[in-house]
Amino acid sequence: MSEPLRLGIAGLGTVGVGIVRIVQKHQALLAARAGRPITISAVCARSRTKNRDIDLSDYAWEDDPVALAKRDDVDVFVEVMGGHDGPAKDATEAAIDAGKDVVSANKALLAIHGQALAEAAEAAGRVIRFEAAVAGGIPVVKALTEGLAGNDITRVMGVMNGSCNYILTRMEDAGLSYEAVFDEANQLGYLEADPELDVGGIDAAHKLALLSSIAFGTQVDFDSVELDGIGAITIEDIRQAADMGFKIKLLGVAQLTGRGLEQRMSPCLVPDTSPLGRLEGGTNMVVLEGDAVNQIVLRGPGAGEGPTASAVMGDIMDIARGHRMTTFGQPAKTLRKARAARAAVPAPYYLRMQLIDKPGALAKVAHALGEAGISIDRMRQYGHDDAAAPVLIVTHKTTRTALEEAFADFNTTGVVTGDPVAIRIEAV
Amino acid sequence: MSEPLRLGIAGLGTVGVGIVRIVQKHQALLAARAGRPITISAVCARSRTKNRDIDLSDYAWEDDPVALAKRDDVDVFVEVMGGHDGPAKDATEAAIDAGKDVVSANKALLAIHGQALAEAAEAAGRVIRFEAAVAGGIPVVKALTEGLAGNDITRVMGVMNGSCNYILTRMEDAGLSYEAVFDEANQLGYLEADPELDVGGIDAAHKLALLSSIAFGTQVDFDSVELDGIGAITIEDIRQAADMGFKIKLLGVAQLTGRGLEQRMSPCLVPDTSPLGRLEGGTNMVVLEGDAVNQIVLRGPGAGEGPTASAVMGDIMDIARGHRMTTFGQPAKTLRKARAARAAVPAPYYLRMQLIDKPGALAKVAHALGEAGISIDRMRQYGHDDAAAPVLIVTHKTTRTALEEAFADFNTTGVVTGDPVAIRIEAV
Q: Is the Cβ pair B321, A321 closer than 8 Å?
């Protein structure tokens, strides 16, 4: 049996504790599979005294993750602290400098600093692996970079924020407003300390940016993700969508076309009979499309102690087996800087707006759409008690740019009150 | 850039041609990802003159796969010929003897001779990879052996024969008999030359035996798979199942319990709202359950040129990157010989039988079930014109052994005509 692979674990929250549990419980299994033992040399967290219900007495304790990262008895620095700057970044850089491999669950750090970190690691002959940063327990990074390595990837899609999917599913099931379900989810502890990370789509956009990079061989570019949260979705939108055979999902979509790289994280309508449409509650789903494989759908838990620790352990086992992957599937220096293509791929859209109830209002809206080159597939006006009439329109294929042109025009008509809502209908 | 990885491809059917196409089309992409070019040195097939619509002029031709396997200019022997003995086996053994790595799509060969081949390869320091042998384009071998390497795997399930799933789906959609849809599928070329490989569940059982081995660290044991095809399923079974909220699927299930390794490939009832229940047509689905990750569901094309070639290329890319996996996830010599546990895990069953229409018949059947310790959850007797009445029974949890005991008892009652049908209701 070869030398043990020695871990230094920075962060003893849910995920860190999950990793310690697996290493302790599955000693023999991991050694049999990797051909060498996996051991823990040292751990580090903010509080040493917090009761975590695990035995840490065999491991050295460090208060400072940078000190942990530099320890001579650590081969792999396991970063499960979180935060895209500060200690997590400092310690990851220190680990690379000290010649350690890195396994990280930190989507924010990698979505923002991934290119620089990958270049530094590869220059030092080290690896950075991040399966746990994307879609929790689903081994999607591995599927994309290794399993589908023979494919030109054509599109990547995913529902990658369980909290948002929970909220949208619950709104529909219980007929509750966004605000009511948001409060409920917050009280149940389903949302991040800063809920905007969830409902604003930021957390999911970090994941999408990482997936785009490994799918298309491009430098990770979080800033170019078109980002739209679920806060504007009403129960009425959900009902109307259902009526037309659709579900509303916070869907990430990345596509590389002749016009550049399009990355969107936004509410979308998807057919209710599709795997994405049928995804309920907190589960994640990623759809991978390649020229040879056609389409693969992966479904699993997107968060939680066990699933996230499972993903971290997968990376650790790869390193223990001597499988050394480049961070983003090909050498970081060969990753292209993709031109960001905003709204390049046309799609039908679902539009909701309030019209002032006077003759000719609908005609003015239809005219504005026509002027922007947008043709209408379906339109509905609803009964109403107040001065503004809710109107729903489903367009034929168009672009976000054309829609924005039309929306600007709406303002000059004087018949549209408030902001119109536009939700893309994604073909899945 | 490092030395090219040189392939010798044995078999130029659909899959072989697909591999050649990918290597030719994605030269630059593959080299960027693997850090070295992937090239083809030689190919081999039964007919040299057959028009395959690809340019093979740059590759040496061998008539004999054994000669191909031994060539000095071949690093990886790619076996996509098929057949569990004869040339495929001879050539695979020759490749290992000659110090080549092997990538195989041959489920039958590996399900039957996998242990011996893996031991030989590992003794020679060579790898055998077989992603394409299980569930086509879905990277499930990789997900299990690598992505979930930190998990104690608790259960593996799958719909892994697209033809059977097509037949069952089509029976339900079109209201046709098994025989009618079988003929239709056969005429459309959906079935193997020997259809029993498909509808008898043998092909899917090969895949299940391979999955069991990598899931549980046991020696591949195809002979112990409890095998039951779809030939006895009637349109009435499908309708009754639907009525109770179930679909009938040819489902493979492998579980390692205290009593041993249970491997079943048989028609099962699954909830119609579950991912497995919703799987329609020729698509494959594999469900992986582990103690940390809980449950992962993978869905994708189970056959076809592109998907199967995609899986083969994934293995080739791993080898090109220097990722050397043991065949079954841990050294072949450490794989345990599992005791085969037949029907160890109890489940509710759906029973269908014909009773002679005379007073007390139903009571006799109920009594026989009771004597075998089987309690009845639901029972239905249908209107009928002839002398035998169709009766459906859903039992509470029981075992196949108890059912067989009851069925033997049925014979002595003199009221059951023909063979009763028992379909397991699998919790998914």
A: no
Q: What is the mean pLDDT of chain A?
A: 95
**A236 in Cβ contact with A248 (< 8 Å):** no
Please give the distance of CA A271 from its chain centroid, rounded to a whole number: 21
DSSP A269-295: EEETTSTTTT--TTEEEEEEEETTTEE
Cross-chain CB nearest to A32 (options B275, B300, B334)? B334
User: Which run of H or E residues covers position B6?
Assistant: strand B5-10
Burial bucket for residue B125 (CB in 10 Å: 0-12, 13-18, 19+): exposed
* Ranges of chain B whose pLDDT falls below 50: none
Residue B265, beta-bridge partner list: B227, B252
Residue with tokens 């040879």: A292
DSSP structure string for A310-322 = HHHHHHHHHHHTT
A-chain residues within 8 Å CB-CB of B314? 146-150
Contacts with A122 from chain B: Cβ below 8 Å? none
Q: Which residues contact A301 (CB under 8 A, 6 or more apart)?
A: A136, A137, A138, A162, A282, A283, A284, A307, B293, B294, B295
Contacts of B301 in chain A (CB under 8 A): 293-295
Chain B residue closest in CA terms to A330: B33
Residues B86, B88, B93, CA angle at the centre, nearest 5°?
95
End-to-end CA distance of chain B: 48
Pairing of strands B283-290, B260-271: unpaired
- pLDDT, tens digit (0-9, with 9 covering 90-100), for B87-114: 999 999 999 999 999 999 999 999 999 9
Of the candidates B34, B294, B310, which has its C-beta nearest A293's C-beta?
A: B310
Q: Which two tokens stand for residue B389?
A: 């009445």
d(CA B54, CA B47): 14
Helices (H), B26-106: 27-34, 65-70, 87-97
The alpha carbon torsion through B337, B342, B345, B350 (nearest 10 deg) reads 150
Per the annotation, the verdict on A333 as an active-site residue is no
- Residue B406 C-beta-side C-alpha neighbours within 13 Å: 26
Tokens of A164: 């948002």
Cα–Cα distance measured from residue A371 to residue A363, given in angstroms and rounded to the nearest whole number: 12
Confirm if B103 and B202 have CB atoms less than 8 A apart. Answer: no
Question: pLDDT value at position A193?
Answer: 87
pLDDT of residue B428: 87
**How many contacts, defined by CB atoms under 8 Å, are there between A and B?**
202
Cβ proximity of B279 and B165 under 8 Å: yes
Structure-block tokens of residue A12: 């003893």
* Res B209: pLDDT: 98
- Whether the ipTM is more than 0.90: the answer is yes
Structure tokens at A118: 């990958």
CA distance B325 to B146: 9
Please compute the mean of the pLDDT values over residues A125-140 and round it to a whole number.
97
Q: What is the pLDDT of residue A159?
A: 97
According to DSSP, residue B320 is labeled: H
Does A299 contact B296 at a Cβ distance shorter than 8 Å?
A: yes
pLDDT, tens only, B291-322: 999 999 999 999 999 999 999 999 999 999 99
Q: What is the DSSP letter of A146?
A: I
Q: By the 8 A CB rule, do A247 and A233 touch?
A: no
- In sequence order, the β-bridge partners of residue B389 are B355
From B100, B107, B142, B207, active-site residue: B207
Q: How far is CA B394 from CA A256, B240, B253, B377, B413, in A?
A: 52, 11, 20, 5, 20
**Do B423 and B350 touch, CB atoms closer than 8 A?**
yes
- A143 → chain B, closest CA residue: B139
Q: Which of B328, B325, B204 is nearest to B263 (CA)?
A: B204
In the set A207, A247, A249, A364, the catalytic residue is A207
Average pLDDT over residues A236-257: 94
